Amino acid sequence: MTERQKGERQKDRPWLMRTYAGHSTAEASNELYRRNLAKGQTGLSVAFDLPTQTGYDPDHVLARGEVGRVGVPVSHLGDMRRLFQDIPLEQMNTSMTINATAMWLLALYQVVAEEQGADITKLQGTTQNDIVKEYLSRGTHVFPPGPSLRLTTDMIAYTVNHIPKWNPINICSYHLQEAGATPVQEIAYAMSTAIAVLDAVRDSGQVPEERFGEVVARISFFVNAGVRFIEEMCKMRAFGRIWDTVTRERYGIEDAKQRRFRYGVQVNSLGLTEAQPENNVQRIVLEMLAVTLSKDARARAVQLPAWNEALGLPRPWDQQWSLRIQQVLAHESDLLEYEDIFAGSHVIEAKVDALVDECLAEIERIQEMGGAMAAVESGYLKAQLVSSHAERRARIESGEDKIIGVNIFETTEPNPLTADLDTAIQTVDPAVEARVVGALGTWRDTRYQPPFNHPRPCKALERLKEAAKGTGNLMEATLECARAGVTTGEWAGALREVFGEFRAPTGVSSAPVAVPAEEGSPLAEVRRKVDRTAADLGVGKLRFLVGKPGLDGHSNGAEQIAVRARDAGFEVVYQGIRLTPEQIVDAALEEDVHAVGLSILSGSHAQLVPDVLDRLKDAGAADIPVVVGGIIPNADAEELKAAGVAAVFTPKDFGITGIIGRIVDEIRKANQLSPLESTEVPA
Question: pTM of the entire structure?
Answer without folding.
Answer: 0.88
